[in-house]
Amino acid sequence: MIPSPGPGARKPSDSSPPVGSRSLVPPGPTLSLASHRGPRHTVVAVDGPIDYHTAPQLLGHLTTTELQNVPLLILDLARVNFCDSSALGAFVDIHRRRADAGHRFALSGIQPEVRRILELTRLASVLPLYETVEDALSGD
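Above: the chain's sequence. Below: its structure in C-alpha cell form.
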C-alpha cells in the first residue's frame, strides 16, 4: 500500500515553488527599464546595477518579440554605475543575436566605471559605444 501524501504535499499541477526551495537566481535588486520607440529604433533606458541578479531581467526584456525586429536597439546606460561579467555577457549576447538577425545594437551614456570595465576587457573595441543616444541615432 502506498502512503497518501501529507497535507503540505505539492500537486503535480502546482507551479509555485515548494516552501524553502531556492531559485536559481538569488533575490536581489531589480532594474528599472523604460523603452521608448522611434520610427526605426528603440531606446531602452536602464536604471540600476547590471550584475548576476539583474542581467537575466535585462536579457529577458531585450529579447522580447517586440524588440527583435527593431532595426536599431540602443541601450542607454546613463544611470548604470556598476556592471559585472554577467552584464558583459548580456551585452555580447544581445550584440551577437542582433548582428545575426541583421539588426544593430548600441550602448550609450556609459559611465566612467562601466567604460573602464569595457576597456579592460577589450569589449570597447567590439561593442558600438556612443556618448549619447543622439550620437547613436546619428552614427553609422
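Residues 8-17 have pLDDT under 50 and may be disordered.
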